[in-house]
Amino acid sequence: AETYNIENTVKRYKEAGVKGDKLVLGTPFYGRGWSGCESGGHGEYQKCGPAKEGTWENGVFDFSDLEKNYVNQNGYKRYWNDQAKVPFLYNSENGTFITSDGEH
User: Fold this and answer.
1) Sheet harboring 86-91: ordered strands across?
2) What is the rounded CA–CA span in Å between residue 50 and residue 87?
3) Distance (Å, rounded) from C-alpha 94 to C-alpha 92?
4) Cβ-based neighbours of 17, under 8 Å, separated by 6 or more
5) Which of 4, 23, 25, 61 yields a CA-CA distance of 20 to 30 A from 10?
6) pTM of the full predicted structure?
7) Per residue of the chain (104 residues), what is the pLDDT tens digit?
8) Do the beta carbons of residue 100 and residue 30 sit within 8 Å?
9) Structural domains in the chain, sorted by start
10) What is the β-pairing status of strands 76-81 and 60-62?
11) Rounded Cα distance, 91 and 101, in Å
């Protein structure tokens, strides 16, 4: 099976003749969220409703907004998916699930 990750992507570009100093890695500093998520697994891998009202638009949360207003406050608790190595937030009071690639 083909592995999709940064290491293999860079390797393939270099094998295709792209110089390493021309490659730039972009990292998303935002999260995605949904409302009405069932409580099993703290909302992870559960049936959810529509996108939650976010920072910029429905379902999209700015990283700084997550840090300032959501992480372990206002009913949101931070959890960790050790297999995917990503954090996520869940609010059991309103069923909101938010995931992101970030430190939170």
Assistant:
1) 60-62, 30-34, 96-100, 86-91, 76-81
2) 21
3) 6
4) none
5) 61
6) 0.73
7) 567 788 899 999 999 999 999 999 887 788 999 999 999 989 899 999 999 899 989 999 999 999 999 999 999 999 998 888 889 999 999 999 999 876 64
8) yes
9) 29-100 (3.10.50.10)
10) unpaired
11) 18
Question: What tokens were used for 56?
Answer: 């910029």
Query: Residue with structure tokens 């100093």?
Result: 21
Encoded amino acid at 52, one letter = K
Length of the chain: 104
Q: Which residue has the tokens 């297999």?
A: 83
- In terms of Cβ atoms closer than 10 Å to its own Cβ (0-12, 13-18, 19+), residue 91 is buried
